Amino acid sequence: MKNNIDYKKSIIVKSTVELAFIALTKEIDNWWSSVENLADKEGSVFKVFFGKESYWKFKVLVLKKHEKIIWECVESHQDHNLTGMDEEWLHSKLHWSISDIEGTVKIDFLHKGLISTGVC
Protein backbone atom coordinates (compact mmCIF):
# COMPACT_ATOMS: atom_id res chain seq x y z
CA MET A 1 0.00 0.00 0.00
CA LYS A 2 1.33 3.41 -0.97
CA ASN A 3 2.03 5.92 1.77
CA ASN A 4 0.72 9.41 0.96
CA ILE A 5 3.69 11.30 2.41
CA ASP A 6 5.37 13.57 -0.16
CA TYR A 7 9.14 13.95 -0.40
CA LYS A 8 10.42 17.44 0.55
CA LYS A 9 13.89 18.95 0.57
CA SER A 10 15.30 22.47 0.79
CA ILE A 11 18.83 23.56 0.07
CA ILE A 12 20.71 26.85 0.10
CA VAL A 13 23.38 27.35 -2.54
CA LYS A 14 25.84 30.08 -3.43
CA SER A 15 24.36 31.14 -6.73
CA THR A 16 21.87 33.47 -8.33
CA VAL A 17 18.21 32.76 -9.04
CA GLU A 18 19.05 33.06 -12.74
CA LEU A 19 21.72 30.33 -12.58
CA ALA A 20 19.54 28.09 -10.40
CA PHE A 21 16.72 28.43 -12.93
CA ILE A 22 19.06 27.51 -15.80
CA ALA A 23 20.27 24.45 -13.86
CA LEU A 24 16.67 23.26 -13.45
CA THR A 25 15.67 23.88 -17.07
CA LYS A 26 18.67 23.56 -19.37
CA GLU A 27 21.46 21.88 -17.37
CA ILE A 28 19.74 18.93 -15.70
CA ASP A 29 22.47 16.64 -17.01
CA ASN A 30 25.01 18.56 -14.89
CA TRP A 31 23.37 17.57 -11.58
CA TRP A 32 21.09 14.56 -12.18
CA SER A 33 21.69 12.33 -15.21
CA SER A 34 21.72 12.36 -19.01
CA VAL A 35 18.76 14.13 -20.57
CA GLU A 36 16.96 14.16 -23.89
CA ASN A 37 15.43 17.58 -24.68
CA LEU A 38 15.24 20.65 -22.45
CA ALA A 39 12.78 21.58 -19.71
CA ASP A 40 12.81 25.24 -20.71
CA LYS A 41 9.20 25.86 -21.87
CA GLU A 42 5.77 25.09 -20.50
CA GLY A 43 4.54 22.01 -22.33
CA SER A 44 8.06 20.71 -23.03
CA VAL A 45 8.55 16.97 -22.62
CA PHE A 46 11.96 15.60 -21.69
CA LYS A 47 13.52 12.32 -20.55
CA VAL A 48 16.06 11.69 -17.83
CA PHE A 49 18.02 8.46 -18.39
CA PHE A 50 19.69 6.12 -15.91
CA GLY A 51 21.70 3.61 -17.93
CA LYS A 52 20.40 2.18 -21.21
CA GLU A 53 16.95 1.01 -20.13
CA SER A 54 15.77 3.16 -17.22
CA TYR A 55 14.24 6.59 -17.68
CA TRP A 56 11.61 9.02 -16.46
CA LYS A 57 9.75 11.23 -18.91
CA PHE A 58 8.46 14.57 -17.63
CA LYS A 59 6.19 17.31 -18.94
CA VAL A 60 6.78 20.90 -17.82
CA LEU A 61 3.47 22.15 -16.39
CA VAL A 62 4.56 25.48 -14.89
CA LEU A 63 7.58 27.61 -15.69
CA LYS A 64 7.71 30.96 -13.91
CA LYS A 65 11.12 32.41 -14.75
CA HIS A 66 13.57 32.45 -11.81
CA GLU A 67 10.80 31.48 -9.35
CA LYS A 68 8.82 28.29 -9.89
CA ILE A 69 8.89 25.09 -11.94
CA ILE A 70 6.52 22.13 -11.91
CA TRP A 71 7.08 18.89 -13.79
CA GLU A 72 4.76 15.91 -14.08
CA CYS A 73 6.10 12.40 -14.63
CA VAL A 74 4.20 11.19 -17.70
CA GLU A 75 6.14 7.97 -18.27
CA SER A 76 8.35 5.81 -16.09
CA HIS A 77 10.44 2.80 -17.02
CA GLN A 78 12.83 1.52 -14.37
CA ASP A 79 15.10 -1.45 -14.96
CA HIS A 80 15.91 -1.84 -11.25
CA ASN A 81 13.54 -4.75 -10.53
CA LEU A 82 11.99 -2.77 -7.66
CA THR A 83 8.28 -3.47 -7.31
CA GLY A 84 6.12 -0.37 -7.53
CA MET A 85 8.81 2.10 -8.65
CA ASP A 86 7.24 2.87 -12.04
CA GLU A 87 3.80 3.30 -10.53
CA GLU A 88 5.15 5.45 -7.71
CA TRP A 89 6.69 7.98 -10.11
CA LEU A 90 3.96 7.97 -12.77
CA HIS A 91 1.76 11.09 -12.52
CA SER A 92 3.74 12.40 -9.53
CA LYS A 93 4.62 16.10 -9.67
CA LEU A 94 7.96 17.73 -8.93
CA HIS A 95 7.74 21.31 -7.63
CA TRP A 96 10.77 23.62 -7.52
CA SER A 97 10.63 27.04 -5.84
CA ILE A 98 13.61 29.36 -6.17
CA SER A 99 14.16 32.36 -3.92
CA ASP A 100 16.95 34.86 -3.35
CA ILE A 101 18.05 35.05 0.27
CA GLU A 102 20.68 37.72 0.88
CA GLY A 103 23.12 36.71 -1.84
CA THR A 104 22.37 32.98 -1.75
CA VAL A 105 19.58 30.95 -3.31
CA LYS A 106 17.10 28.74 -1.53
CA ILE A 107 15.63 25.92 -3.56
CA ASP A 108 12.57 24.26 -2.09
CA PHE A 109 11.71 20.93 -3.68
CA LEU A 110 8.46 19.04 -3.24
CA HIS A 111 7.83 15.73 -4.96
CA LYS A 112 4.08 15.22 -4.61
CA GLY A 113 3.17 11.57 -4.77
CA LEU A 114 6.62 10.16 -4.02
CA ILE A 115 7.08 8.73 -0.58
CA SER A 116 10.27 9.73 1.21
CA THR A 117 11.23 6.18 2.18
CA GLY A 118 11.51 5.00 -1.41
CA VAL A 119 9.69 2.18 -3.13
CA CYS A 120 6.29 0.96 -1.91
CATH architecture: 2-Layer Sandwich
Count of DSSP helices? 2
Query: What is the C-alpha radius of gyration, as a whole number of Å?
Result: 14 Å
Distance between the termini: 7 Å
Specify the structural class: mainly beta
Report on this structure.
The chain has one domain (7-112): Alpha-D-Glucose-1,6-Bisphosphate, Chain A, domain 4 (2-Layer Sandwich), CATH 3.30.530. It is 12% helix and 46% strand. It contains two helices and seven strands; from the N terminus they run βαββββαββ. Strands 1-7-6-5-4-3-2 form a seven-stranded antiparallel β-sheet.
The gist of it:
The chain is mainly beta and 120 residues long. Helices cover 12% and strands 46% of the residues.
Notable traits:
Alpha-D-Glucose-1,6-Bisphosphate, Chain A, domain 4; 7-stranded antiparallel β-sheet; mainly beta; 46% strand; 12% helix; 120 residues; globular
Chart the SSEs and their pairings.
Elements: E1 7-13, H1 17-25, E2 34-36, E3 45-50, E4 54-64, E5 68-77, H2 85-89, E6 93-101, E7 104-112
Antiparallel strand pairs: 1-7, 2-3, 3-4, 4-5, 5-6, 6-7
